[in-house]
Amino acid sequence: MSNHAILNNVEHNTLTVADQRLAEHDNHHMCAALTLSELRAAVQDYPILFYRSPNESSPEPMAIFGFEKNENLFINESGWSNHFIPAIIAKGPFKIGHQQDSSVEMNQVVSVDLEDPRVNTIEGLPLFLPHGGHSDYLVHILDNLHRLATERPDTLAFGKALFDAELLESVNIEFNVNSEESTRLTGFMTINEEKLNNLNGDALESLAKKGYLQAAYFCIAAMANLGPLIQRKQQKEYN
User: Fold this and answer.
1) Which pLDDT value is given to residue 106?
2) pTM exceeding 0.70
């Protein structure tokens, strides 16, 4: 059960966080939402598909880590086997919210889940320096939280632009894991590259001006990572 407390350098000056990349629960993420600015880095490691959750009107880009619920094929005994970790995971046991101050203004505040098993006072990365300043780790966390908070509207607008232009189509990924078993991934969408290339000049210009055209091609290029991810799955099952 979560127990979020607003972070401060007095009450929490001794808190440390076990490296979230090695946390056992990261192994339960089979995909993660990406912000628009993360696509350039994510294309180096992951297939990128689009998913529209029931409570959202727009699809959003997702880094794919596995093909089954709670499967992350990028986790091994040493932690993450690649370099880029999406902000939604890298933020660890922290979240950003709003609190009303004495002047009735709403200010952003950062909270930490004190019940998260990564949070302790014995080992891990410190949040604060001895004299109260932010540690490098906390600066990294704050950067991730800021990215998630500020980029989400534009990321959803990107997905909506692709959807409205009828560039997204459902995709079913099915392959043999071994001689007796197959795996199928459904519920996601991908960009139809042919339709994108055949858009008229005005539509292409509109996407380009917003930075969405480049982002779309990042997502298309990322599908080259699907084959290596399938190989990871097959090797895991054979071993």
Assistant:
1) 65
2) yes
